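Lab meeting minutes (informal)
Scribe: AK
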Amino acid sequence: YALGNTNQIRVVIPANGSELRPLLTVKASSETISEGSTVTFTVRTSVKSNRDINFNVTLSGDASPDVDFLTPNTDSYTIFAGNYSVDVQIQIRRDDTVEPDENLILTLGADTPPSGKTKRYFLGGTTSADVTIESGDLPELKLVGGGTVAEGRTGSFRIVADSPLTDDTSVNYQLSGTAQNGADYKALSGTVIMKAGSSSVTV
C-alpha cells in the first residue's frame, strides 16, 4: 500500500478531573463559643485536586480584632494537593467586660487569577460562617445608702453595678428589720428594673 497525505492523527487525553470544578465551602465548628476558647472554621473543596488551592478569607462581624479575638498572622490559606480541607483557627480572647454577645464571621474570597489564566477554584453554596461569642461576664451589684430617716421623711438606697448593663435587668432585693413594709413605710415590691446602659438605680 502507499501512504496518503494524512498519515498521522493526534489524540488529546485531558488531565484527570479537568472537567471538574473545585467548589469551596466553609463551616464553623460551633454556632456559639465561650470567651477564652478557639473556634475552627473548616474550608472544604468538593474535588480533591493534584494542585494546591490557595484562597483568601476576610473576618467581619461586631467582634473587634485583637480585643475580642486574636487577629491571625495571615488571611491566605492553602488546601494542599490531595487534601479535601484545611482548618482556620481563631483564638477568642477572655476579658472581664460586661458586654452583649458578639458575632464573628469568616467569608471566603473569590479566586481572581491573572489575565489569561483559568480559575483554580469557585465558591460553593456556603461562602461564610458565623459564630456567636458568648460573654460570661455578669455585673457585680452592691448597695449604697442607709442611715437614719425621720418619720414623714423620704429615705432611699441605690443599687450600683460595677459596669453599665447591656439589657434592661430585673433586680430583686429583700427587706428586713423591725419596720414593717407597707405599715411603717410605703410598700415596696422587692423588685426594680435597672435600665440598659445604666449602672445604678434608686429605690
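Next up, CB showed the second protein from the same session:
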Amino acid sequence: YTDTFDNTVPEWKIQGTLNAAGWVRTKFRDCWEHGGVYLGDEADAMPGRVQTLFNAALANTEFGFPDGMVKRHPQCYLLFAGNTTGLTRDPRYPDRHPFDFSFRNRLTYLNWEPDPGLERAWCEAALPGMGTALQTWASRVNQQAASFKIPCVLTPRNTVGLAKLLAEGWEQPEALAMQCWQGLTEEQGQKLLASVPFPTVKR
C-alpha cells in the first residue's frame, strides 16, 4: 500500500470518511486492519496534522478511525520515505520541512545509500562498455561539487539518463547540459569538468 504526501493531503486520506456513496476506506486502514506493508512516500512533505495521526498509530496497537477503534494487525508494517532527514530544511527541496519531534522520535531510521553496482549495471545496459566509467565519474563529480559548493548532485537517474542520451547519439556537451548540469552556469559546469574530466565514450 502506498500514499504519496504533499502539504495539502487531508486527514481523511488516512482515516477514511463517509460520503454520499458510503464509507470510504483507505490504504492505511486496509494495511492496519488486514496486514501488509504501508509506504508513506515523500513523508517530509506531509502536513503536521497528518503527522499527528501517525503519532497515535506508531505509538499504539489500536487506532481510532471514524467508525471506531481498530486493532493493528500483527503483520502490519509502516514505512516512511523522504528526500531529507526530517531534521532541518534543505535548499535542494524547498517544499520539504522538518518532522515534528514526536513523529521523528517514533521512527527507526534507515540511511538508504545509492547502490553503485546497480547504477553501473543500469548504465552498462544503456551504453555498453561505459557503465563503470560513468558511475565512477558521477561519484567524483558529486565529491567535487560538494567541495566547490556547487549545487549539483548526480543520482543514478542522471547517470542512466546520460548514458541513454549518449547511446542515442547526442554530443557530450548537450547530454551533460540536459542530464547533469541542469541549470548550472557554464562556468560551474566547466569547473567540474576541469576537475573531473569526462571519460572517452565508447560507441
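CB comment: The radius of gyration is 22 Å.
No objections, moving on.
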